[in-house]
Amino acid sequence: MKDKKEIPFNKPYLTGKEVHYLYDSVSSGKLSGNGKYTKKCQNFLVNSYGFGKCLLTTSCTDALEMAALLIDIQPGDEVIMPSYTFVSTANAFILRGAKIVFADSRKDHPGMDEASIEKLITAKTKAIVPVHYAGVACDMDVIMDLADQYNLFVIEDAAQAIDNYYIDRTGNKRALGSIGHLAAFSFHETKNIISGEGGMLAINDAQFQERAEIIWEKGTNRSSFFRGEVDKYGWVDIGSSFLPSELISSFLWAQLENLKEIQQRRTEIWNLYFQGLETWAHDNNIGLPVIPSYSTNNAHMFYLVFENIEQRDSVIKKLKKNNILAVFHYLSLHKSEFYKDKHDGRELIESDSFSDCLVRLPMFFELEDSQIERIIKVIKSSI
Amino acid sequence: MKDKKEIPFNKPYLTGKEVHYLYDSVSSGKLSGNGKYTKKCQNFLVNSYGFGKCLLTTSCTDALEMAALLIDIQPGDEVIMPSYTFVSTANAFILRGAKIVFADSRKDHPGMDEASIEKLITAKTKAIVPVHYAGVACDMDVIMDLADQYNLFVIEDAAQAIDNYYIDRTGNKRALGSIGHLAAFSFHETKNIISGEGGMLAINDAQFQERAEIIWEKGTNRSSFFRGEVDKYGWVDIGSSFLPSELISSFLWAQLENLKEIQQRRTEIWNLYFQGLETWAHDNNIGLPVIPSYSTNNAHMFYLVFENIEQRDSVIKKLKKNNILAVFHYLSLHKSEFYKDKHDGRELIESDSFSDCLVRLPMFFELEDSQIERIIKVIKSSI
């Protein structure tokens, strides 16, 4: 019954150094935030991806909340984002009083349809929040042009997009999260690079860099004080406790040190899925992930798009019967119990379609080639 | 020069089991929030202290923010709290639009003067936030009576008050944090029980227990779903990612297992300070911590109150010269750069006095008797 061994949907990968660095932070006695490992991680991320500045946070949700504070969202301000996203993308702005204007997904991809954004812009629009779904880039040139034209902020929800790139119209490769005014990343255990719970705010627009640090430090100018820039520190602004413990950042450091190895194996897995399913998918009218020409692939996720919810559910069931855990993903936020009465009534058919038809396959560093073959075999036999 | 070895103000104490439990959580592969150790900690806290329900959070700040969401603070609502407190006590409510009405401290203690509260209550008052400074209880009977009379919520800021008790007018010993409708605790590395960064919300009023879990889980009914109470989960409310990683809760578990041992040693240290300084303080008109008859003592902090800022600063300087780190504490929030123009102009002289005159002495589990003697000796020689 070897064949029946369960394949989980996700399994956090430990590089082996996590416990070592955890132990180092524990024995150093500095366990609160903004210590040695926090700085190591932040410097690594800035240097690797060209972000203006990085601040680790306790979650991507918290990074998005920092962004909402920084752009000074006021009650009634409108924020445009896809309906096919995680609740935190919306909640972070709703907590500041924003009205969410949901955009539909592209037909070929769950990412927000860039061509649909302009007609959603009103005098109240304050920001656009592109979500790089599955780590795949939104068309940032289009979005940044709109932001320039209408004087809007762009906050990249890069929760899934670590180590991925957008190729702009001049052919430049730009790291996702380095393009918008601000960007939020996740290191939740389901992501490529993890720290259990955790996140990071990239602050690319220099006007926000000083205040970001203050908001991160509970509304105090403590960081500035420790750099000797002010002679005492106190309460100067709103803020929260966004910074994670060194327990979190020391763990994250081990992951970042092994980023290349992690990305390489995930890419192999992604390619094995793609090659194994390509012909079958074409023959059966099943959608595979689309990587647009302006995006590289960070192999965060491998998904299939079925023709309807019944077909999708039957495949999930068949996989489960074979001890393989595959899962659907977001439910359109504009149809949620919380927001359906606040939404303006527009139909967002692509978002609904991805809610019904998309399924994510097991994807984690330690997934073996033989397991991938087994998964592909079960999928092919189920239609 | 053995005598000159530095005595830090704080040193996080590790019981020895932290790395063991961290390793267990790491190797279990469940690193995100709400796993085994989170539940162990929450159950322990509920069972030990009679809280209605407990939810671990990434910080005490976050627990206070959850409280502000739960009592549905709206712009213009007024919240009464001491001026002599940490910025997060105020910011958590300001983020929801509250106006803070600052109360003065007692003359004999930095805690809020209970007798001053009633005249601060208006038709807009929504909540009172007593801060159990140094872990010492506020007079909760007085505060709860006011809350009943004026229909207000009471949120205990119990950041420093783990394992401490209020003796009510009927002689019952009630754990701090179990009395108000809600209470926020901190496990920051400077507290008695630590997890680097970390906190906990106690939810004593049953009306908030279901919604607290939803807000904690990013505004979704995910917890309810996993208990089989609803057949799918989705976005039902505002919320954030308040729950900490299992890395944090596994660490905390080791601390909670050793709570008695930790508290015993801290109490010994506190008593050594008190006995060593009592006569000297009396003779020199220096204030020592006051533990009112209605409070027990969790030995969170040992402080002295000098006659004026010059005397206080000179003692800190003298201690520093002798390689002993003692520190002052809060600056009155009503005089802060952020709030001075928003404050209603009332003088809060006791709060200002504690800002100027209070100094906290080194206080940590591993502080040795001989070090305490050395500290006392230097203090006595400095006046």
Task: Describe, in short, the structure shown.
Two copies of one chain form a homodimer. Chain A has helices at residues 18-28, 36-49, 60-70, 87-94, 140-150, 209-216, 222-226, 246-257, 259-284, 309-321, 349-357, 369-381, and strands at residues 54-57, 78-82, 99-103, 125-128, 153-157, 165-167, 173-175, 182-186, 199-203, 303-305, 358-360.
Q: How far apart are the first and last residues' alpha carbons of chain A, in Å?
A: 24 Å
Give the chain pair forming the largest contact, with residue counts: A-B, 62 and 61 residues
Biggest pleated sheet of chain A: 7 strands, mixed
**Structural class computed from helices and strand pairing of chain A:** alpha/beta
Q: What is the general shape of chain A? A: globular
- The oligomeric status of these chains comes to homodimer
CATH level-four homologous superfamily name of the largest domain in chain A: Type I PLP-dependent aspartate aminotransferase-like (Major domain)
Q: Strand percentage of chain A, roughly? A: 5-15%
Number of domains of chain A: 2
* Proportion of residues in helical segments of chain A: 25-40%
Q: What value does the Rg of chain A take, in angstroms?
A: 21 Å
- CATH topology value of the largest domain in chain A: Aspartate Aminotransferase, domain 2
Order of helices and strands of chain A: HHEHEHEEHEEEEEHHHHEHHEH
Number of helices of chain A: 12
CATH class of the largest domain in chain A: Alpha Beta
Protein name (chains A, B): TDP-4-oxo-6-deoxy-D-glucose aminotransferase
Keywords (chains A, B): Pyridoxal phosphate
InterPro entries (chains A, B): DegT/StrS_aminotransferase, PyrdxlP-dep_Trfase, PyrdxlP-dep_Trfase_major, WecE-like
Family (chains A, B): Belongs to the DegT/DnrJ/EryC1 family.
